[in-house]
Design brief:
The chain is of the alpha+beta class and 281 residues long. 39% of the residues lie in helices and 22% in strands.
């Protein structure tokens, strides 16, 4: 798949609207193509900016999709006309525009005596509608979960097969974890009730007597989100930025890189988990 084809599909891909086979081709191209990966990362930054602004006032239905479509329309015009205007500039203008819309709507809301909810200090804001909430996922399908199975998550067990082999079925390029002294014990595809697809990989220790496994969840960037967990941003030993917190009494670390969200959850000590998931540590 060529770069111009991929860039035309990045918008639908971030909305998880592509067929699985086509989404896998886009994900594979992005993982190997730095310019297209850069465009992917920029559109995710646009989305995050929209989320931050919309916390004050919810925009009209469909606003985000229209905004993203407009950004890509401008990008395609730029490619055809060789006009030197970056997507970052377009995104900035788009966010400013949305800020104005949000301000107008907020003032209207105040005039109508409607209250605007604020988030609790130290907690993440409510996850986007498109996201899969980390807490709900872990409570339902985590191997050390204290919760009951949630029918919103359907697990398709794949056994010890290499998870890279079912990237097409999952709809994105899966990248197995590399954890020192841990081995892949099993892989599963998890389907959600709102038609999202992610992968769960379970890694067990090679050290005798150690029973706490590490669950590794992987999904396209922007799909996984902490909703109720207080988290903090950390820089790991390999230089990557990650979010860290505690979910269901377990250590949880999420890294978003190369078009993927990778979430590690385990009862093992937080410091040790951070060390294990930092590739160059």
């Amino acid at each position: 798949m060529k770069c111009d084809q991929v860039r035309a599909l990045i918008g639908p891909a971030t909305d998880n609207e592509l067929p699985n086979a086509e989404a896998a081709l886009v994900a594979g191209h992005i993982s190997d193509c730095a310019p297209c990966r850069d465009q992917w990362d920029k559109i995710l930054k646009v989305r995050q900016g929209i989320i931050d602004i919309s916390r004050a006032q919810e925009p009209n239905a469909g606003f985000e999709k229209r905004l993203i479509a407009g950004v890509y329309l401008e990008e395609r015009k730029k490619l055809r006309a060789s006009f030197n205007w970056s997507v970052v500039g377009i995104a900035a203008l788009a966010l400013i525009s949305m800020g104005a819309v949000s301000y107008i709507n907020l003032e209207k809301s105040k005039n109508e005596n409607q209250s605007v909810a604020t988030a609790q200090p130290g907690l993440n804001k409510t996850a986007p509608v498109e996201s899969v909430e980390v807490e709900s996922l872990v409570l339902s399908v985590g191997h050390h979960s204290s919760g009951q199975e949630n029918p919103a998550y359907q697990v398709q067990y794949k056994g010890k097969a290499n998870p890279s082999g079912f990237s097409v079925e999952a709809g994105f390029k899966i990248e197995p974890a590399n954890l020192a002294n841990y081995v892949l014990q099993g892989s599963d595809i998890v389907k959600t009730s709102n038609d999202k697809t992610l992968v769960r990989m379970c890694y067990t220790s090679l050290n005798k007597g150690e029973t706490d496994c590490i669950d590794c969840y992987q999904a396209p960037s922007g799909m996984l989100a902490f909703a109720k967990t207080s988290t903090r941003e950390i820089i790991m030993a390999n230089g990557q930025t990650a979010r860290f917190g505690e979910v269901d009494g377990q250590s949880a670390v999420m890294v978003s890189d190369r078009g993927l969200d990778t979430l590690y959850v385990s009862p093992i000590a937080a410091k040790r988990l951070l060390h294990l998931v930092s590739p160059n540590a």
